[in-house]
Design a protein that fits this description.
Elements (H helix, E strand, L loop, with lengths): L16 E5 L3 H10 L5 E6 L11 E5 L10 E6 L4 H12 L4 E3 L12 E5 L2 E5 L6 H14 L4 H18 L3 H13 L1 H9 L1 H18 L5 E6 L10 H9 L2 E4 L5 H4 L7 E4 L11 H13 L3 E6 L9 H11 L2 E5 L4 H8 L13 E5 L8 H9 L3 E5 L5 H10 L7 E6 L7 E6 H6 L9 E5 L12 E2 L9
Parallel strand pairs: 1-2, 1-4, 2-3, 4-5, 8-11, 8-12, 9-10, 9-11, 13-14, 16-18
Antiparallel strand pairs: 6-7, 14-17, 15-16, 15-17
The structure holds S-adenosyl-L-homocysteine.
Length: 466
């Protein structure tokens, strides 16, 4: 192998300027090349002859001035004469890399022929000796790399962190990237849109993740509040791949049915008349299924990390050395906020938002109620439906103002959604029953900014004047 007199490298020009001295065909050739970059391209020439209008360049039709090289990363001189000489001398004095078109001896650098599949670039250089040969080689490489190749490279770049978090060994990651860049599905999808490409890349990632561990995998998936269109795309995709779907009672059938038809379905819910599983039994179940090599979708209502006992399941999976992934979902409180147009944080009214349990916190847990009552933030109380009046009484007993607005959303995010509104004192007095279904209780001043006009009133003092 011969030795190179030049060193090929990729030079950063983003945010910098590239100056071209000259206004003819040769300048235009350089413009074609450098406008592939995000640099600002400036042309300085006394006489502008070529048509630069198709390019995003700044054209100064005037003599060259030394100040033209301020903030300039690269200089091309594409004419002869006094301006050219001054530009060369200025560039050299300031150590700005210089290219003098067709005068190799005066060049600090040469421009290679470029195959542009941004961010993938192939540069072909003959060190200025045989540009024609370089262009020929370029044409061959162009033919080898389909135009969508750059998009795949961008896609791979955007997936780096996810791949690292899901595939833990170097060789397995390399296998994934190889599959990604050669997959016809990914290529076709990426040509349609970046999102379509990402989707196919994720499908491939799921496959690799489950292949790289023959002991199966558990996906803890948030199913959202109960409408199938509030499921994430990722949740839907993994449901389609699961061998077994293990779901809670609160996850509606509609969502469970989005899984593969031949997938086994196990309800671990606490429905009346059914055998219900203890948390320990659920932990054992998902570990066993995954150990049998199955892909397990553990479907939980809302978001799995919010009152979903995900902590216990995750620690059982970790202990058993089983791969897992968490897929977030729309939590009931967020669906309730959306249904009632309630901004749970609101400038000058509520600087924060608390998701808390209304249940399980006993009278003795004074700190829990004191913190909630005195926070001044918007509260979303889960699991509090059957004890709504007591909850209101506790908050007032711990210092919340009786006039604090309250909104209750039953069946948030579902067609049969029902809302109630009032304030803490009216909720204390209230003794009718709420509609069937799970409920979120909102408490706080920001609740009054929501759209509760059609709500059944908790009491006469409905805060919303419709
Ligand atoms: N992980 C779930 C919460 C499970 S705990 C989530 O993030 O939403 C169960 C409690 O969630 C219920 O008692 C109720 O307070 C609330 N909940 C679940 N689904 C709901 C819905 N569709 N509408 C209102 N509240 C709901």
């Amino acid at each position: 192998m011969g030795h190179l007199n030049t060193f090929p490298l990729s030079y950063k020009v983003r945010g910098l300027r590239i100056a071209i001295i000259g206004g003819g065909e040769e300048a235009l050739n350089k413009v074609r090349l450098v406008t592939k970059t995000t640099a600002m391209v400036v042309i300085i020439a006394r006489h502008v002859e070529a048509d630069f209008s198709p390019f995003d360049v700044l054209v100064h039709e005037r003599p060259f001035a030394e100040a033209d090289l301020d903030g300039v990363a690269l200089v091309f001189v594409a004419e002869e004469g006094a301006d050219a000489e001054l530009a060369k001398a200025t560039a050299r004095a300031r150590n700005i890399p210089l290219n003098v078109v067709d005068v190799p001896a005066e060049c600090d650098f040469y421009t290679p022929s470029i195959v542009d599949r941004a961010p993938l670039t192939v540069a072909i250089s003959s060190e200025g000796d045989a540009p024609v040969l370089a262009r020929l080689v370029r044409a061959r490489i162009e033919a080898m790399l389909p135009p969508g190749f750059g998009k795949i490279a961008r896609l791979a770049g955007g997936l780096r962190q996810r791949v690292e978090s899901l595939i833990h060994t170097g060789p397995a990651r390399r296998r994934y990237y190889e599959a990604l860049v050669t997959s016809p599905q990914v290529e076709a999808a990426v040509a349609l849109s970046p999102i379509a490409g990402r989707y196919e890349a994720e499908v491939l990632l799921d496959q690799h993740q489950s292949q790289s561990n023959s002991a199966g995998v558990v996906w803890l998936i948030g199913a959202g509040p109960g409408s199938e269109d509030l499921l994430t795309l990722r949740a839907q995709r993994l449901l389609q791949q699961a061998d077994v779907i293990v779901h809670d009672q609160l996850v509606p059938d509609l969502v469970v049915q989005m899984g593969r038809r031949d997938a086994e379905q196990i309800s671990v819910g606490k429905a009346k008349g059914h055998h219900s599983f203890s948390q320990a039994q659920i932990n054992t179940l998902i570990v066993r299924l995954a150990s049998e090599g199955k892909k397990v979708a553990r479907l939980k209502s809302g978001d799995p990390m919010i009152f979903g006992r995900a902590g216990e399941e995750i620690s059982a999976l970790r202990k058993a050395g089983i791969q897992y992934q968490i897929v977030p979902g729309v939590s009931a409180a967020m669906a309730a906020a959306a249904d009632t147009a309630t901004p749970v944080t609101l400038r000058k009214v509520s600087s924060g938002f608390i998701m808390a349990t209304a249940h399980g916190a006993e009278d003795s847990e004074l700190a829990h109620w004191a913190a909630l009552a005195q926070s001044g933030l918007t509260l979303a109380l889960y699991m509090g439906k059957s004890i709504a009046s007591e909850v209101a009484a506790r908050l007032v007993a711990h210092g919340a103002r009786p006039s604090t607005p309250v909104g209750i959303v039953v069946n948030a995010g579902r067609p049969q959604m029902t809302t109630y509104s009032g304030n803490l004192s009216s909720l204390i007095e209230w003794d009718a029953t709420l509609a069937d279904g799970p409920a979120i209780i909102f408490v706080g001043e920001a609740v009054a900014a929501g759209d509760w006009a059609n709500a059944a009133q908790i009491a006469a003092q409905n805060f919303k004047v419709a």
